[in-house]
Design brief:
With 389 residues, this protein is of the alpha+beta class. Helices cover 37% and strands 29% of the residues. The strands form four sheets. The protein has an eight-stranded mixed sheet, with helices on both faces. α1 (12-23) links the parallel β1 and β2 (28-31). The radius of gyration is 21 Å and the shape is globular. Bound molecules: 8-demethyl-8-dimethylamino-flavin-adenine-dinucleotide and P-hydroxybenzoic acid (PHB).
């Protein structure tokens, strides 16, 4: 097969990029290792910044997002019994939209056929070749058959563990990494949320987050040691822990129910630079990971894709090489700011095992400052709604 752009990975980054390129008349194909059902079974992000919403809008694929997405004007930081509300709408004039990553992916998936976006699921053994040349190619196996895609660019949207980043020689790139000493245990349940806005809580027993997917579906998280297993957390034990960590007011409004899904995700900050090497570009989790505390991962994938689509469209429509050359620096400048915000919110809201009374006093002082300073709240709000693209 011959195409202009071969995209690896049909998560939100790969599907968004595929649609944006098709809308501009650029030929592309998407190769995905898993089945569509598997891709849709992954429960992940829930908070969309304006960049993600506006890309769906630009594609005309935002009907369900508009109808079902929940605009959130504020969110809360809890510390013991104190609740600090960050009024994003008032401080920045912007809001975020609560709409599951699964739903974004489904909307993009459902529109693939009618928009002429070819997605090949269950593509095994995907391998990248000659990415330093102007004629790279990708091979994969589908059933018994070995296949080859010749193209001008390969875009790696294959997440943290995919093969694309590894196709860049070690001596060319640099890894920046911080691994946190805990993971997030997430739970989904068909019960009304305990609060109409998100609550991030820093409690002596650990972190907790109350989030949601809809007025009848809640998403909760707590931090747990990396050695913990999901099986250790019965639904009852998890509800009890959430009630303590989120504080008495949230606990009083909490409806308990059976969990639909429970899983533990490790927390990591990671950046690989540069995000382009020769004819290979990286987008989303393939190039960087943020801890979920700032709700930035999916939204960063969307801003990468925005820059990549712009660069690739310029290349194919007006032979513009400059935007391709500028892609990595442009994307990384936004990536590092989101890395900083996610890292600082993670440090503020979690009890690290190595922390002593001084580190805790610093957290309290920072929360006091945030509670009393409009400037501090504005800084948090403008990062949370998403920095300009
Ligand atoms: P994805 O979603 O991992 O998709 C990559 C795709 O590539 C495929 N793939 C391959 N395909 C072909 N060949 C191979 N060898 C392949 N290897 C992998 C995979 O099957 C997959 O389909 O990466 P993408 O598209 O870059 O999207 C990134 C987001 O998924 C991620 O950043 C967010 O989910 C992070 N995240 C959150 N982000 C937010 O913006 N807001 C949030 O509220 C938020 N909450 C979260 C999160 C991530 C979490 N976990 C579990 C990591 C909450 C959690 C718990
Ligand atoms: C979620 O609803 O899954 C969610 C919300 C906010 C975060 C992380 C995850 O910071």
């Amino acid at each position: 097969m011959k195409t202009q752009v071969c995209i690896i990975g049909a998560g939100p980054a790969g599907l968004l990029l595929g649609h944006l390129l098709r809308a501009e008349g650029v030929d592309c194909v998407v190769l995905e290792r898993r089945s569509p059902e598997y891709v849709l079974s992954r429960i992940r992000a829930g908070v969309l910044e304006n960049i993600t919403v506006s890309l769906m809008e630009r594609l005309g694929l935002d009907a369900r997002l508009k109808a079902e997405g929940l605009p959130h004007a504020g969110f809360n930081l809890a510390d013991g019994e104190r609740l600090i509300r960050i009024d994003m709408e008032e401080l920045t004039g912007q809001h975020v939209v609560v709409y599951g990553q699964t739903e974004v992916t489904k909307d993009l998936m459902d529109a693939s056929a009618e928009r002429g976006l070819e997605v090949i699921y269950e593509a095994d053994e995907v391998a990248l070749h000659d990415v330093e040349s102007e004629a790279p190619y990708v091979t994969y196996r589908k059933g018994e058959e070995l296949q080859r895609v010749d193209c001008r660019f390969v875009v790696g949207c294959d997440g943290f563990y995919g093969p694309s980043r590894k196709a860049i020689p070690e001596k060319v790139g640099q890894n920046y990494e911080l691994v946190y000493p805990f993971g997030w245990l997430g739970m989904l349940s068909d019960v009304p949320p305990c609060n109409h806005e998100l609550i991030y809580a820093n409690h002596a027993r650990g972190f907790a987050l109350a989030s949601m997917r809809s007025p009848t579906r809640s998403r909760y998280y707590i931090d747990v040691p990396l050695s913990d297993r999901v099986e250790k957390w019965s639904d009852d034990r998890l509800w009890d822990e959430l009630a303590i960590r989120l504080g008495p007011e949230a606990a009083a409004n909490m409806t308990r129910g059976p969990s639909l899904e429970k899983s533990i995700a490790p927390l990591r900050s990671f950046v690989f630079a540069p995000m382009r090497h020769g004819s290979l570009m990286l987008c989303g989790d393939a190039a960087h990971i943020v801890p979920p505390t700032g709700a930035k991962g999916l939204n960063l994938a969307a801003s990468d894709v925005h820059y990549a689509a712009e660069a690739l469209t310029g290349f194919f429509k007006s032979s513009d090489n400059d935007a391709i050359a500028a892609y990595s620096d442009k994307a990384l400048s936004r990536v590092w700011k989101s890395e900083r915000f996610s890292w600082s919110l993670t440090k503020l809201m979690h009890r690290f095992p190595e922390d002593g009374p001084f580190e805790r006093a610093m957290q309290v002082a920072e929360l006091d400052y945030i509670a009393s300073s409009r400037a501090a709240q504005t800084s948090i709000a403008e990062n949370y709604v998403g920095l300009p693209v």
